[in-house]
């Protein structure tokens, strides 16, 4: 039995014909509707690529999104003050308990 049957050959020809009909020449490609998507893709003209020494690295043209948590320093400082005050109160209560235990001995 052949490794490549006539049915496989017909399928191969059909796929090749589909591929050829789907190909577009450079002039048929619509370049007027290209859209930049922030942090994902950017349309860059050849002149800009040349200015960047023909660097085709995506990160050269598309800025990575900053996903760090935004922290309100004023709120954080207030929370720290509350924690420190609670810690002081707990420390006083703990000192009282320890002195009571030591007094019982």
Question: Describe it for me?
Answer:
- The protein has 105 residues and is an all-alpha fold.
- Among the domains are: 34-67, no CATH class; 69-105.
- It has four helices and no strands.
- The chain has helices spanning 6-22, 46-51, 58-61, 73-104.
- The termini are far apart.
- The model has no long low-confidence stretch (mean pLDDT 80).
Task: Tell me briefly what this model is.
The chain is 56% helix and 0% strand. The protein has helices at 6-22, 46-51, 58-61, 73-104.
Features:
105 residues, mainly alpha, rod-shaped
Q: What is the radius of gyration?
A: 35 Å
SS field, number of helical segments: 4
Question: Main β-sheet, in a few words?
Answer: none
Q: Could you tell me the number of beta strands?
A: 0
